[in-house]
Structure formats: C-alpha cells, structure tokens
Amino acid sequence: MSAFRASRSFRREGTRQRRAISENLPLAGDEGLPIGGEYALKAANPEMNQQVMRSFAEFWPFYVRQHSKARTRLLHAIGSSIAIVCVALALAIDLWLLLLAPLLGYGFAWYAHFAVEGNRPATFRHPFWSLAADYRMLFLMMAGRMDEEVAKHLGPEQTAPAGARPAASGE
Predict the structure, then answer these.
(1) What is the 3-state secondary structure (H, E, C) of 115-153?
(2) Dihedral sign from CA coordinates of 22, 28, 31, 34
(3) How far apart are CA 166 and CA 168, in angstroms?
(4) Cβ atoms of 105 and 82 closer than 8 Å
(5) Any alpha helices (H) in the chain, and if so which ranges?
(6) pLDDT tens per residue across all 171 residues of the chain
C-alpha cells in the first residue's frame, strides 16, 4: 500500500472516530461497555435520542429510569442538598458562594451518571425539567416514596429498594 493510500485510509478512520464521538456512538472495540465515556452515551441512552418530550409529565418517567440505581439517587440527593446549603450560605455570607451551588450539585449528579449509572445526564437535553426533577426526586426520597416511583416506571423485577438484598435461590 502506498503512503498516500495509507494516509487516506488513516484520515478516513479518524473521520469515523470523530463522527462516532460527536454523535455519542461507541467506538470500535467498545461494544457493550457502558464505561461512562461521552462517546458511549448515545448507546447507553437510546430512548433519550428517539423520544421527543413535550411536557414534564412525559419527561418524569424517563428521568426516573435514568436514576434506577439507589446509589445514583443518593449521590443526586447529596449534590442537591449541598446546592441548597450553598445558596443559603451565599445569601447569608457572600454572593460569590452562589458559584459553588451548580458546581457541587451537578458534580455529584454527573459523577453518578457517568461512573455509577453509565448513562448521560438528562441535564444536557432538558436542563430545566432535569433541575425540577432533581428536587422532586429529593423530596420523594425524603418522604420515602422514591423507591415506589422507580418500581412504577421500571417494574418491580428490575429494581430493589435501597438496602434490600436479593432473595437466596430456593426460598
């Protein structure tokens, strides 16, 4: 193969990889590995890419499914609570502390999505609904009703309440 052909082939492969990254598709060799990288997120969230949501009522079931793991919900609750504390401290002490609210709140939430849940945060497509859903989820968690909500939207066989252990076989 000539150097020109090799160069053209290399550029074509680079173009495929750049397109896969920009379209959030898995790269070659990454099939089935939801490692949380940006390029694998479209494959991890196929319903987010196909569904057009016109209201918060349509968005909520999707949001709940994206938070199916109890650890994801816990990290969201921690981040949302810290954000509320930052806003209160900013009003009481110094308004510069307002900058910490989104950094800490979204920091915990995005870590939960990328490292724990293995999906793309809904904030990227629906920022306002996502923020409202974060606090709805926080209040449902405080009321002890979020596990019911997850079971309703996922089905009881796909989720277990936080702290529950799977039953041993033969019981």
Answers:
(1) HHHCCCCHHHCCHHHHHHHHHHHHHHHHCCCHHHHHHHH
(2) negative
(3) 6
(4) yes
(5) 3-22, 41-44, 46-50, 56-65, 70-92, 100-111, 127-142, 146-154
(6) 555 454 454 455 555 544 544 454 444 444 444 444 443 444 445 544 456 788 999 999 999 999 999 999 999 999 999 999 999 999 999 999 999 999 999 999 999 999 999 999 988 889 999 999 999 999 999 999 999 999 998 875 554 455 444 444 444
